[in-house]
Amino acid sequence: MNEFKFINSIKQSYYRNNTTIKGIGDDAAVFRLPYHDIVTSVDTLVDGIHFSKETMKPFHVGYRSLAANLSDMAAMGANPISYLVSIVVPKNYSNYDLQEIYHGLETLAKKHQVDLIGGDTVTGEQLVLSVTVNGAVLAGKARYRDLMRPGDIIFVTGTLGDAAAGLNILLDKQSVDFGADYLINRHRMPTPRVEFASQLANIERLALNDISDGIASEANELAQASRLTIYLDEGKLPLSKELKQFPRAQQLDYSLSGGEDFELIGAVSPEYWRLVRDAAEQTNTPIAKIGEVKDELKNNGTVWIKRNETYIKLQSSGYVHKN
Ligand SMILES: Nc1ncnc2c1ncn2[C@@H]1O[C@H](COP(=O)(O)OP(=O)(O)OP(=O)(O)O)[C@@H](O)[C@H]1O
Ligand SMILES: Cc1ncc(C[n+]2csc(CCOP(=O)(O)O)c2C)c(N)n1
Ligand SMILES: [Mg+2]
Ligand SMILES: [Mg+2]
Ligand SMILES: [Mg+2]
């Protein structure tokens, strides 16, 4: 790999987004947008933590990395515009491997009309891919975690637990009778719910969070940020037929704390539930009502889940990076 040749090889020949004023080729990129709040976030994938030779090809590393970032845009109700990639390239990575990472990034970027506007390339010991994404939301319309209100419906998109099941199949810790390809694909190439979230623009108030660490963790984040109590119904968690072939305890472990589903969990007033369902239908997004929000002084900041007709406390049991 030669740094400068490489940068030239990944540079887009034109920019899709008309907000992009300067992309790759100067000291920094520039984009311009009136009437919007700029939304930005960064997420990093590390070899051995988020993927391994067993679980992902370079193409998937690129795809999955942008997917996680676009998912954060969706969770803010923002439309993604552009992204930057910081990459640490190990010596044993071939030019082909590198191009495949960018092929994965570009495949999803094209789908969402976002531009690669910059980044940084260095060599190092292990592959690290850090993607920064920029997006925009109409001024004042970002979907913060503290925007839940008592009486809100809690909903979730897609199905939960598939990515964790797929990962365990890839790591040879699990075998299945059917649907291995589906589950593996859900792990390698998650679907960020960008169009769905964008279709909710007409709803005055909405709280959203995306599910990277598991719904047990993300629901607790919503409850804590909004200082309210969430009640979930375990029987209403949306599970794929592929996940349902596992023993019930495993279904629950994967769906509650497996993580990496990149689905959205949200809270909305019941009067707007119809609009949420319409948006789901228009964007081909499965959606399920899974609970409600209450204001209970002694329980605020916590999440409860109905299991066998009684509510038990749902601890924030998702994935935590630790040393
Ligand atoms: N090293 C850091 N320096 C500064 N801010 C950070 C750092 N790490 C996380 N944050 C900030 O902490 C908040 C929570 O980040 P977190 O990564 O948990 O959210 P997320 O990206 O939605 O979840 P995930 O990374 O699990 O997908 C965000 O505002 C994020 O920008
Ligand atoms: C090889 C391999 N081993 C384990 C895992 C599981 N894993 C890693 S990070 C994470 C949470 C999300 O991370 P973040 O919070 O950084 O977004 C999970 C569930 C994996 N993906 N690959
Ligand atoms: Mg993060
Ligand atoms: Mg997030
Ligand atoms: Mg995390």
UniProtKB/TrEMBL annotation:
Residues covered by the PurM-like C-terminal domain: 149-297
Binding sites annotated in the UniProt record for Mg(2+) 4: 27, 41, 72
Residue numbers binding Mg(2+) 1: 43, 120
GO term, biological process aspect, one: thiamine biosynthetic process
Catalysed conversion reaction: thiamine phosphate + ATP = thiamine diphosphate + ADP
InterPro entries in UniProt: PurM-like_C_dom, PurM-like_C_sf, PurM-like_N, PurM-like_N_sf, ThiL-like
Residue positions binding Mg(2+) 5: 213
E.C. numbers: 2.7.4.16
Residue ranges of domain PurM-like N-terminal in the record: 25-137
A molecular function GO annotation: thiamine-phosphate kinase activity
Residue sites binding substrate per the record: 50, 260, 319
Family to which this protein belongs: Belongs to the thiamine-monophosphate kinase family.
Additional remarks: Reaction mechanism of ThiL seems to utilize a direct, inline transfer of the gamma-phosphate of ATP to TMP rather than a phosphorylated enzyme intermediate.
HAMAP family membership: TMP_kinase
Official protein name in the record: Thiamine-monophosphate kinase
This protein's encoding gene: thiL
